[in-house]
Amino acid sequence: MDARDEAGTPPIPGSSPTGGHLPATPEETGGSLGADHARVPELLEATRAYAVRLLGGLGDRPVARTPVRPAPVPLPETGIGLEGAMEEFAKRWEPGFAAGAGPRYLGFVTGGVTPAALAGDWLTGTLDQNPTSGLDSLAPDLERETAAWLRDLFGLPPEHEGTFVSGATMSTFAGLAIAREWLGERRGVSPAEEGVAALGPVTVLSGSPHSSVVKSLSMLGLGRSAIRRVGLLPGREAVDVARLAEELDRLDGAPAIVVANSGTVNTVDFDDLRAIAALREHHPFWLHVDAAFGAFAALSPEHAHLVAGLGEADSVCVDLHKWLNVPYDSAIQFTRRRDLQARVFRNSAAYLGPVGDDPDFVHLTPENSRRLRALPAWFALAAYGREGHAEIVRRDVALAAGLGERIATMPAYRLLAPVRLNVVCFTLAGSPSPARIDEVVDAITASGEAFLTPTIHEGVPALRAAFSNWRTTEADVERVAKILQEVASRP
Ligand SMILES: *Cc1c(COP(=O)(O)O)cnc(C)c1O
After folding, report:
1. Which CATH fold topology does 129-374 show?
2. How many separate helices (H) and strands (E) can be counted in the chain?
3. How do the domains of the chain map onto residue ranges?
4. What pTM did the predictor assign?
5. How far away, in angstroms, is 263 Cα from ligand 1 center?
6. Is the distance from the beta carbon of residue 464 to the nearest atom of ligand 1 less than 6 Å?
7. pLDDT tens digits, residue range 3-45?
């Protein structure tokens, strides 16, 4: 009460209690923000020049860093302006950043950033759209166009509709959330309305599920233990479809979820999607396909058969910050059941309008407000098209095969699986201990020449080299092979 004047009007935030006025322009505020505002073109030129220097040095900077944290600095009280901040960043933090976007970062499955994708990302921040609803901007329509282009790129039928999410984990989370609602539909309940307890126990069958599937089941209240691992084909990471059929038989007609894998992370193996989809003739199940990077096999005529049947899935997960080479974070979720998707993620509020048949994005994913995540992908697809992106896939596949051939001739190493697409999975000759593999990984990292990640394949400690960057060349493979030779010959 005492903060109000006689008319009961609350004071304007930022105005002085002694009758001061709000500044008419941001410059008038003085301080570092006012000073920056007065020099925006010049400061953005300086930022652009810094970015160009960083990109120019990407091939030369050590590929990965063993982190050494700089001494902490307290929250600045007044701030040093953009130029000062850039200097601080360049001094304290940037030297410790990895060349993750560079050509010899072969750890995990890591994409780079094409020029058009980077430009799209810059403009995303510049325009700062919130594509949540279509009340004020065409931004959501650009996102719809991009999703339709991607559907086309992966050869999915028009019944599949796409929504942008932050990564493959969120894509799988959303796909399995729709699956959960589908199970409810079959059992005459709505988990979205009544809670997951109304559903009863749920069975999720998969051959070689990615860890993100298990994490999603935890987040969805279905529980990590809902997953039942199905037997694999001999010497493979692909599911044995006959064993899957037996597991489904055992459920005695109870609806289930099947997670099929298109591109496992160790050996890039592919489940037979057509054979799995055909099982739906006799067994009710929701088919979710984790095609985080494997979906890109569709772009190569020699490898497209690996994802034949992808369109028959009920939900599909594809990462874009991997093989599409857009910056983090970006992935897409496709489903045929947008109605169930909206039932799960509906976010009703008077100011958002009704959900309708073509729901706004706010009703389709876990997020409400978010960035216009489609714009970097739109730029990449507009700039390079299907052909340009097919070329990236073809080149990475050829480079992976090339490294595989070299490793096969090195006495110090042996391949653990044929190079099916873009990952080389190999280990040291003999039976190396996990500690010995870690030594080799650390030595490669310390050399600054390359970054590879360790794994365990069929109980054997191993290494992986994953190719999904548009910048990588034959000369890079040469350098990777050389450092592999070197570190193996060290005692
Ligand atoms: C990378 C990956 C994921 C998880 O992706 P994020 O983008 O890290 O969420 C899931 N499945 C597969 C097969 C992957 O390669």
Report:
1. Aspartate Aminotransferase; domain 2 (3.40.640)
2. 14, 11
3. 1-38, 39-96, 129-374
4. 0.94
5. 10
6. no
7. 444 444 444 444 444 445 666 676 666 799 999 999 999 999 9
